[in-house]
Design a protein that fits this description.
The protein is an all-alpha fold and about 220 residues long. The chain has a domain of about 140 residues. About 70% of the residues lie in helices and about 0% in strands. The chain is built from nine helices and no strands.
């Protein structure tokens, strides 16, 4: 799901270069809007899970495991683990800002020290993401492992794949001179139909498992 969200940005920008991706957003048309917001939301959820940050901190589970797997280490090794985790959060925030929020682009309010404004805007955007990670940690309860798997396989991957195909179809329609609005309507209808089929299949499988348990066959839910 994380890779599909990034691939959608590449497709929208028409380049794999971060320089070109930022350049396409200078006019204010940030990719968070150009891609339809959905890839941005998928990136946030999948990125949070990739970083093992709450509510997806299943590896550490500090409340249950005292300090998570870090309790096996001390001194320098302990510090390196923690520094690496925090650096990962900063790196993921910087990637999100670059791909979706225009990178360092922003209004230059004064000509004095004009070179400093891009640095300021980039830092402000990154700090906003860091605040979001802290807010999530203090707000949401931890997901169970099965809930995380359900979210990834049944929601994030189908949604990100469907949206990637929709953006690709829109680009092809624009290049070929077809009706982009018609392609969007057909694409959204197809995605809605696929979501209905997937939901029905999941509900049927869950009902069959419950029936098997009630029948005493010992099948896990």
């Amino acid at each position: 799901a994380l890779g599909l969200a990034i691939a959608t940005v590449f497709l929208t920008s028409g380049s794999l270069s971060t320089h070109d991706i930022v350049a396409t957003q200078v006019s204010g048309n940030w990719n968070v809007l150009a891609t339809g917001v959905v890839p941005f939301l998928v990136f946030l959820v999948a990125g949070t899970a990739e970083l093992n940050r709450p509510p997806f901190d299943l590896v550490e589970a500090e409340q249950e495991l005292v300090g998570g797997f870090h309790t096996e280490y001390s001194s320098l090794r302990f510090a390196l683990f923690f520094l690496a985790e925090f650096m990962n959060v900063i790196t993921m925030s910087a990637i999100a800002v670059t791909l979706f929020l225009g990178g360092p682009s922003g209004p230059i309010l004064t000509d004095t020290l004009g070179w400093a404004w891009p640095i300021l805007w980039f830092s402000v955007k990154v700090f906003a993401f860091l605040f979001g990670f802290v807010w999530l940690r203090a707000t949401l309860p931890r997901f169970r492992y099965d809930q995380l798997m359900d979210l990834g396989w049944k929601v994030l991957i189908p949604v990100s794949l469907g949206w990637f195909l929709l953006i690709a179809a829109m680009r092809v329609a624009d290049d070929e001179g077809w009706s982009v609005a018609g392609v969007v309507v057909i694409g959204l209808a197809g995605m809605a139909g696929g979501a209905a089929l997937l939901s029905g299949a999941i509900a049927k499988a869950r009902a069959q498992r419950l029936e098997a348990i009630e029948a005493g066959e010992g099948v896990d839910v």
